[in-house]
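Reply to thread "Modeling small-molecule complexes from scratch"

Following up on the discussion above, here's a worked example others can learn from. I took a protein sequence and the SMILES for zinc ion and predicted the complex. Inputs first:
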Amino acid sequence: MNRQKLASRHYCSLRDRPGQLSGLHTAGNGKPRPKTCTYCRGPLVTETGLWGVFEWRGDGRYRREAAEKTFTRELAAEDWRLDHTGAGTSLVVRWIPVDAWTEEATAAIAAAARAEHDFGGWLAMVLATVAAGLGSSDALIEGRPGSWEASLVDQLVKGTVGYGDESLAHYRPGAQ
Ligand SMILES: [Zn+2]
């Protein structure tokens, strides 16, 4: 599968506690070697994402789509930024959080969109299979059931497995 690799970085989960000097907490690129913060012993959090080079913005909103270029290494992004900074351009390097599953799903769905004749039917089948694994069609949207996206996902899944999950079991992975 042709997917872009992601960068990772880590930081102390307690670094924003009031009354502490946030610069002393453990933070860095890649996966952490120690398990806890060397300053406060707090648990470390590892994030995946990309380093993006952006035109500087006053509002601080740096969305992935707006990046001039993205990198998996901060130093490579910094080098590129220096090479492309000219008169009248103000480029900055910013971290873009990207979940690994978002990256993998995007690549998988792009492959399916090219190969599947009935993309809608395929997507409905995939969602039904996931719902079956989770135990109910409602489980897919329980985090935020009221949104319009949730209601469309719900229609797609329940149109496939039945409004009372009657056919859910057929979609359980490994079911005949
Ligand atoms: Zn800490």
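What I'd highlight from this example: The chain has two domains: 7-97, 116-171. The helical segments are 74-84, 100-115, 119-134, 148-161. Questions welcome below.
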